[in-house]
Amino acid sequence: MFIRLGEIGDDFAVVPEQFVAEGDTVVALGDYRWKHKRSGEPSVVKMVHVWSMDGGKAVAFQQHVDTFRVLELS
Hints:
Layout: H1 5-8, E1 9-22, E2 25-36, E3 42-54, E4 57-65, H2 67-73
Antiparallel strand pairs: 1-2, 2-3, 3-4
């Protein structure tokens, strides 16, 4: 998915609901939420972020999300 967040809709937010950590890996599970640009209706899509840490700093990041669903709700 190569779109700007402002193109998706208004009031875009990343809402983590759960964190799982093991070793140098932290996983955040939650939602992307925004308001549809034209209708103002709320949109919600599940997301997962995987962070690799080193010395307390993030060194790598992976995003997992149903991009088709994001575009469908935009």
